[in-house]
Amino acid sequence: MKGIEVRSKKIKGVITDKGSQIRCGIVVNAAGPYASIVGKMTGIDLPIDPIRKMAYVFDPKIKFDYDLPLVIDTDGLLYFRHESGKTILTGKSIPDEPPGFNFEWDRDYYMDVIWPQVSERVPSFDTARLIRGWAGHYAMNKVDGNAIIGHFGDIKGFYGAVGFSGHGLQQSPAIGKCMSELIQFGKYQTVDLSCFSFDRLKTGRLVFEEAMV
C-alpha cells in the first residue's frame, strides 16, 4: 500500500504500490512494526517503533527427558524453552537499541551475552552448540508498552490494532473478533477493550505493560 485517501475527515480508499485505487470506507491499520508509517498516511502519529528482537536455537549436549516450559529470567530478561528435537530456543533484548528495520542477527551477542547467562541458569547448557539464529521486530508502543486498539483520531472509518509490543500473535484471535464487533456494531460485545483506545494517549489513562522480554 502506498497511501490512504482521506477527504473531509473520512476514509475514501487506499492507493496500492502500483498506483491503482481501491475504494473503501473503512481501513484497519494492523501493520505491526510498520504501523506508524501507515498512520502517517492519514496524518495520525502513532508512538510505534520497530524494535529488533533476535532469537537463537542451540543444541544442548545433555537432553532433558521432559518438555521444558517457557522460562523467563526476570533479572536479565532472558528466556528459553524447548524447540523441536529437544533443541533450545532462547533470546534476550539489547537494552536501548535504536529502533529501525534491522533484520541481521548477531552471533557475537549470543556468544558474549546470552550463552554465559543461560549457562549460569542451567549449567549443562555450557556445552551447547549454536545451530541458527534470526531477527524479527516488535511493534513497540513506546508510551506504555500496550496495544492501541479501536477507532483512531477524528477520521471516520480509520481503525487499528497496533503496538502490541510482542504480544500480538498471542492475542490476535480475540483482537480480531473484538475489532469486527466494534466495526460492525459500533461497540465491543465480547470483551470491552476501550481501555486500550487511541484516546488514552491524550487523556493519560495509560495501561502499562511490564511482562515483555
In words, what does this structure look like?
There is one protein chain. By secondary structure, the chain is an alpha+beta fold. The chain folds into two domains: 27-47 and 143-203, FAD/NAD(P)-binding domain, CATH 3.50.50.60; 52-137, 2-Layer Sandwich (D-Amino Acid Oxidase, Chain A, domain 2). Helices cover 20% and strands 30% of the residues. It has helices at 35-40, 107-121, 168-185, 200-203, and strands at residues 3-7, 10-15, 21-23, 27-29, 48-59, 71-73, 78-82, 88-92, 129-141, 148-151, 158-162. The protein is elongated, with a radius of gyration of 20 Å. The mean pLDDT is 94.
Give the secondary structure arrangement, pairings included.
Blueprint: E1 3-7, E2 10-15, E3 21-23, E4 27-29, H1 35-40, E5 48-59, E6 71-73, E7 78-82, E8 88-92, H2 107-121, E9 129-141, E10 148-151, E11 158-162, H3 168-185, H4 200-203
Parallel strand pairs: 4-11
Antiparallel strand pairs: 1-2, 2-3, 5-8, 5-9, 6-7, 7-8, 10-11
Largest sheet: 5 strands, antiparallel
- Reported by name, the CATH topology of the largest domain is D-Amino Acid Oxidase, Chain A, domain 2
The assigned structural class equals alpha+beta
Question: Numbering strands along the chain, what is their spatial order in the largest sheet?
Answer: 6-7-8-5-9
- The total beta strand count reads 11
**CATH architecture identity of the largest domain:** 2-Layer Sandwich
Shape: elongated
CATH homologous superfamily caption of the largest domain: D-Amino Acid Oxidase, subunit A, domain 2
The number of distinct structural domains comes to 2
Q: What multimeric state do the chains show?
A: single chain
Distance between the termini: 31 Å
User: What's the average pLDDT?
Assistant: 94
